[in-house]
Write a structure and sequence with these properties.
Blueprint: E1 3-9, H1 17-28, E2 32-38, H2 44-53, E3 58-61, E4 75-76, H3 78-83, E5 88-92, E6 95-99, H4 102-114, E7 121-125, H5 129-140, E8 144-148, H6 152-165, E9 171-173, H7 177-182, E10 186-189, E11 213-216, H8 225-232, E12 236-238, H9 241-256, H10 262-273
Parallel strand pairs: 1-2, 1-3, 4-6, 7-8, 7-10, 8-9, 10-11, 11-12
Antiparallel strand pairs: 3-5, 5-6
Bound molecules: NADP nicotinamide-adenine-dinucleotide phosphate (NAP).
């Protein structure tokens, strides 16, 4: 009998997670089915309880439920506990465990492209939900972090979270953007600036230089203005499609115990998106 997996969010119709996971399920010939579920905010508790009743093996959680879902779960992994975010629920014989694979998915892709981050410095633009997971994984891997965000309280909250979670981590709030870029090896955009309005950028092009690695976690559009301006000064760039695929792959391993084919997942994501 097939076991169920899925993703809950609101809206959910645009999600490419079903395409990514279905590609892996079919390639490995597994007895699973992955479905999208539109769950409105007031039904999050019902949806989570339903996982136990229906023996749904696993669920991805997306906007706007990544924090809200926590109160309905039995346990959290340390990284979910620290970041206050869940993107993956594992139903372990009725015990619902919350995990977040966003940060680790980011880090895997990032290190594959730009090499090890240990001992390096990253300028993190943004301090929203995705930034918390990205910052946690960077810090866990030994990368120093400068956070710049429009709302400084949120940057302070990430700084406190990192200080609580890790000893000996370099973390600061960047107040002077020029110094912050100059002291960094990488620029990582975790804001949504450049997504809806492609002409906008979270960092003026004049700050960019050739030896920076620039990663934009936005994947649609695939080349943001930040990336285009970085490329024009000769900097290496990447978008967030690899983060999306790698976070999915990590969830997939938790549920099925199988290593999924990353290349096929990339292909499925690209076809679904573009
Ligand atoms: P979020 O929690 O709403 O955070 C949004 C961030 O963007 C905040 O730091 C916010 O600053 C900043 N921001 C928004 N509009 C801004 C503006 N006009 N000027 C300056 N800063 C602005 O969202 P999220 O869930 O972290 O997602 C952020 C982006 O990451 C989205 O584009 C999302 O699609 C993408 N994402 C990608 C992946 C992936 O797998 N590649 C995964 C998750 C998210 P304030 O704090 O000042 O409001």
């Amino acid at each position: 009998m097939k076991r169920l997996l899925g993703v809950m969010g609101d809206p959910i119709a645009h999600s490419v997670s079903p395409a990514i996971h279905t590609a892996a399920i079919e390639a490995l010939g597994l007895d699973y089915e992955y479905l999208p579920f539109r769950v409105t905010p007031e039904r999050v508790g019902d949806a989570v309880r339903g996982m136990r009743a229906l023996d749904i093996r696993g669920m991805n959680v997306t906007v706007p439920h990544k924090e809200r879902v926590i109160e309905f779960l039995d346990k959290l992994t340390p990284r979910s506990e620290a970041t206050g975010s869940v993107n993956t629920i594992i139903n372990d014989n009725g015990v619902l465990i919350g995990d977040t694979t966003d940060g680790e998915g980011f880090l895997r892709d990032f290190e594959m492209i730009f090499g090890p981050v240990r001992g390096k410095r990253a300028l993190l633009l943004g301090a929203g939900g995705a930034a918390r997971s990205v910052a946690y994984s960077l810090a866990a891997a030994g990368c120093g972090i400068t956070i710049v965000n429009r709302t400084s309280e949120k940057a302070e909250s990430i700084k406190s979270m990192l200080r609580r979670s890790f000893d000996d981590i370099f973390v600061e709030i960047g107040y002077n953007i020029s110094d912050s870029v100059n002291n960094s090896d990488f620029v990582i955009n975790t804001t949504s600036v450049g997504m809806i309005h492609p002409e906008e950028t979270p960092l003026e092009g004049s700050y960019l230089r050739k030896d920076l690695g620039v990663y934009d976690i936005i994947y649609n559009p695939p080349r943001t203005r930040l990336m285009r301006e970085a490329e024009s000064v000769g900097a290496a760039t990447a978008n967030g499609l690899g983060m999306l695929v790698n976070q999915a792959a990590l969830s997939f391993v938790s549920w099925t115990g199988k290593r999924p084919p990353l290349e096929l997942m990339f292909e499925a994501a690209s076809i679904a998106l573009f």
